[in-house]
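[Discussion] Sanity-checking designs against the backbone

I'm trying to build intuition for which residues belong where. Below is a C-alpha coordinate string of 203 positions. I'd appreciate it if someone posts a full sequence so I can compare it with mine line by line.
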Protein backbone atom coordinates (compact mmCIF):
# COMPACT_ATOMS: atom_id res chain seq x y z
CA UNK A 1 0.00 0.00 0.00
CA UNK A 2 1.03 3.59 -0.67
CA UNK A 3 0.00 6.21 1.90
CA UNK A 4 -0.10 9.90 1.01
CA UNK A 5 0.46 12.02 4.14
CA UNK A 6 -0.82 15.50 3.31
CA UNK A 7 0.44 18.30 5.56
CA UNK A 8 -1.06 21.34 3.84
CA UNK A 9 -4.45 22.74 4.94
CA UNK A 10 -4.95 24.63 1.66
CA UNK A 11 -6.85 21.95 -0.27
CA UNK A 12 -6.86 22.41 -4.03
CA UNK A 13 -4.91 25.68 -3.66
CA UNK A 14 -1.91 23.84 -2.24
CA UNK A 15 1.15 23.56 -4.47
CA UNK A 16 2.50 20.59 -2.48
CA UNK A 17 -0.78 18.70 -2.82
CA UNK A 18 -0.91 19.47 -6.53
CA UNK A 19 2.56 18.04 -7.16
CA UNK A 20 1.67 15.04 -4.99
CA UNK A 21 -1.50 14.65 -7.07
CA UNK A 22 0.62 14.37 -10.22
CA UNK A 23 2.82 11.78 -8.50
CA UNK A 24 -0.17 9.72 -7.38
CA UNK A 25 -1.92 9.91 -10.75
CA UNK A 26 1.19 8.58 -12.47
CA UNK A 27 1.75 5.94 -9.80
CA UNK A 28 -1.80 4.63 -10.22
CA UNK A 29 -1.22 4.35 -13.98
CA UNK A 30 1.99 2.33 -13.68
CA UNK A 31 1.12 0.35 -10.51
CA UNK A 32 -2.66 -0.19 -10.58
CA UNK A 33 -2.34 -3.25 -8.33
CA UNK A 34 -1.10 -1.15 -5.37
CA UNK A 35 -3.72 0.40 -3.10
CA UNK A 36 -3.37 4.16 -2.53
CA UNK A 37 -4.76 5.90 0.54
CA UNK A 38 -4.57 9.46 1.82
CA UNK A 39 -4.05 10.63 5.39
CA UNK A 40 -5.08 14.28 5.47
CA UNK A 41 -3.49 15.43 8.71
CA UNK A 42 -6.08 18.22 8.95
CA UNK A 43 -9.15 15.96 8.81
CA UNK A 44 -9.55 15.80 12.61
CA UNK A 45 -8.50 12.16 13.05
CA UNK A 46 -4.93 12.84 14.23
CA UNK A 47 -4.92 12.47 18.02
CA UNK A 48 -3.19 14.84 20.40
CA UNK A 49 -0.13 13.66 22.30
CA UNK A 50 -0.49 15.30 25.67
CA UNK A 51 0.03 14.45 29.34
CA UNK A 52 -1.81 11.11 29.34
CA UNK A 53 -0.03 9.80 26.26
CA UNK A 54 3.35 11.07 27.45
CA UNK A 55 2.85 9.32 30.80
CA UNK A 56 2.03 6.06 29.00
CA UNK A 57 5.17 6.40 26.87
CA UNK A 58 7.36 6.92 29.92
CA UNK A 59 5.71 3.95 31.63
CA UNK A 60 6.79 1.83 28.69
CA UNK A 61 10.36 3.06 29.07
CA UNK A 62 10.16 2.02 32.73
CA UNK A 63 9.15 -1.51 31.76
CA UNK A 64 5.50 -1.05 32.68
CA UNK A 65 2.40 -1.64 30.57
CA UNK A 66 1.19 1.60 28.92
CA UNK A 67 -2.52 2.21 29.38
CA UNK A 68 -5.25 4.66 28.50
CA UNK A 69 -7.24 5.93 25.54
CA UNK A 70 -4.54 8.39 24.47
CA UNK A 71 -1.96 5.64 24.16
CA UNK A 72 -4.42 3.43 22.26
CA UNK A 73 -5.08 6.29 19.82
CA UNK A 74 -1.35 6.74 19.24
CA UNK A 75 -0.93 3.02 18.55
CA UNK A 76 -3.88 3.04 16.15
CA UNK A 77 -2.34 5.97 14.26
CA UNK A 78 0.97 4.13 14.06
CA UNK A 79 -0.76 1.02 12.69
CA UNK A 80 -2.41 3.10 9.99
CA UNK A 81 1.01 4.47 9.10
CA UNK A 82 2.83 1.15 9.33
CA UNK A 83 0.28 -0.62 7.10
CA UNK A 84 1.91 1.06 4.08
CA UNK A 85 5.26 0.15 2.60
CA UNK A 86 5.46 3.32 0.50
CA UNK A 87 4.88 6.88 1.62
CA UNK A 88 4.34 10.18 -0.16
CA UNK A 89 4.62 13.27 2.03
CA UNK A 90 3.38 16.61 0.68
CA UNK A 91 5.05 19.25 2.83
CA UNK A 92 4.84 23.03 2.55
CA UNK A 93 7.42 25.12 4.38
CA UNK A 94 6.12 26.97 7.41
CA UNK A 95 8.47 29.47 9.06
CA UNK A 96 11.51 27.64 7.74
CA UNK A 97 10.30 24.24 8.95
CA UNK A 98 7.42 21.80 8.65
CA UNK A 99 3.76 22.51 9.53
CA UNK A 100 3.02 21.87 13.20
CA UNK A 101 0.44 19.24 12.27
CA UNK A 102 3.17 17.13 10.66
CA UNK A 103 5.34 17.50 13.76
CA UNK A 104 2.32 16.34 15.78
CA UNK A 105 2.00 13.29 13.53
CA UNK A 106 5.69 12.49 14.03
CA UNK A 107 5.36 12.85 17.81
CA UNK A 108 2.27 10.60 17.86
CA UNK A 109 3.75 7.70 15.88
CA UNK A 110 7.34 7.85 17.13
CA UNK A 111 6.96 5.42 20.01
CA UNK A 112 9.33 2.83 21.51
CA UNK A 113 8.77 -0.62 20.12
CA UNK A 114 6.82 0.82 17.18
CA UNK A 115 8.98 3.28 15.22
CA UNK A 116 12.19 2.82 17.20
CA UNK A 117 14.06 0.62 19.60
CA UNK A 118 16.56 1.88 22.13
CA UNK A 119 19.62 0.35 23.77
CA UNK A 120 21.54 2.21 26.53
CA UNK A 121 24.83 1.26 24.87
CA UNK A 122 24.03 1.32 21.16
CA UNK A 123 21.35 4.03 21.12
CA UNK A 124 18.38 4.17 18.77
CA UNK A 125 17.41 1.65 16.10
CA UNK A 126 14.80 2.49 13.48
CA UNK A 127 12.14 -0.20 13.09
CA UNK A 128 10.50 0.93 9.84
CA UNK A 129 12.43 -1.44 7.60
CA UNK A 130 11.77 -2.20 3.94
CA UNK A 131 9.85 1.01 3.29
CA UNK A 132 10.45 3.93 0.94
CA UNK A 133 9.37 7.55 0.93
CA UNK A 134 8.87 10.30 -1.62
CA UNK A 135 8.69 13.83 -0.24
CA UNK A 136 7.24 16.83 -2.05
CA UNK A 137 8.71 20.06 -0.64
CA UNK A 138 7.39 23.51 -1.46
CA UNK A 139 8.27 26.98 -0.21
CA UNK A 140 7.12 30.41 -1.31
CA UNK A 141 10.10 32.50 -0.19
CA UNK A 142 13.06 30.29 0.75
CA UNK A 143 15.16 28.91 -2.06
CA UNK A 144 18.75 27.70 -2.41
CA UNK A 145 21.14 30.58 -3.01
CA UNK A 146 18.71 33.36 -2.14
CA UNK A 147 20.54 34.58 0.94
CA UNK A 148 19.67 34.66 4.65
CA UNK A 149 17.01 37.36 4.25
CA UNK A 150 14.90 34.75 2.44
CA UNK A 151 15.06 32.23 5.27
CA UNK A 152 16.76 28.93 5.99
CA UNK A 153 15.80 25.32 5.34
CA UNK A 154 14.86 23.42 8.48
CA UNK A 155 12.15 21.60 6.52
CA UNK A 156 13.95 18.97 4.44
CA UNK A 157 16.80 18.27 6.90
CA UNK A 158 14.38 17.69 9.78
CA UNK A 159 11.97 15.40 7.93
CA UNK A 160 14.65 13.34 6.22
CA UNK A 161 16.63 12.96 9.45
CA UNK A 162 13.47 11.66 11.13
CA UNK A 163 12.78 9.21 8.30
CA UNK A 164 16.31 7.81 8.46
CA UNK A 165 16.17 7.67 12.27
CA UNK A 166 12.96 5.64 11.92
CA UNK A 167 14.64 3.22 9.49
CA UNK A 168 13.47 4.59 6.11
CA UNK A 169 16.65 4.97 4.04
CA UNK A 170 15.09 5.04 0.56
CA UNK A 171 14.02 8.69 0.21
CA UNK A 172 13.26 10.45 -3.08
CA UNK A 173 12.46 14.17 -3.22
CA UNK A 174 10.83 16.86 -5.34
CA UNK A 175 11.46 20.54 -4.56
CA UNK A 176 9.30 23.39 -5.85
CA UNK A 177 10.72 26.66 -4.57
CA UNK A 178 9.71 29.39 -7.03
CA UNK A 179 11.60 32.66 -7.03
CA UNK A 180 8.94 35.23 -6.21
CA UNK A 181 11.25 37.98 -7.42
CA UNK A 182 10.62 36.84 -10.99
CA UNK A 183 6.84 36.72 -10.52
CA UNK A 184 6.89 33.69 -12.83
CA UNK A 185 6.76 30.28 -11.22
CA UNK A 186 5.50 28.38 -14.25
CA UNK A 187 8.83 26.85 -15.29
CA UNK A 188 9.68 25.69 -11.76
CA UNK A 189 6.18 24.27 -11.40
CA UNK A 190 6.50 22.42 -14.71
CA UNK A 191 9.84 20.93 -13.65
CA UNK A 192 8.47 19.84 -10.25
CA UNK A 193 5.50 18.07 -11.82
CA UNK A 194 7.77 16.43 -14.41
CA UNK A 195 10.11 15.14 -11.69
CA UNK A 196 7.11 13.86 -9.71
CA UNK A 197 5.95 11.89 -12.76
CA UNK A 198 9.44 10.45 -13.29
CA UNK A 199 9.79 9.40 -9.64
CA UNK A 200 6.35 7.82 -9.57
CA UNK A 201 7.21 5.54 -12.49
CA UNK A 202 10.03 3.96 -10.47
CA UNK A 203 8.34 3.99 -7.07
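Best answer:
Here's mine. Compare freely.
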Amino acid sequence: MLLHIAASPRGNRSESRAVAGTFLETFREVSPEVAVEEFDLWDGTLPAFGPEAAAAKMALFAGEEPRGAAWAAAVDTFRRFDAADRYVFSVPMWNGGIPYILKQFIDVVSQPGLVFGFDPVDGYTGLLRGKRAAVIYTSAVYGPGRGPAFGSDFQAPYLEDWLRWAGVDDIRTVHFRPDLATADADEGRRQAHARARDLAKQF
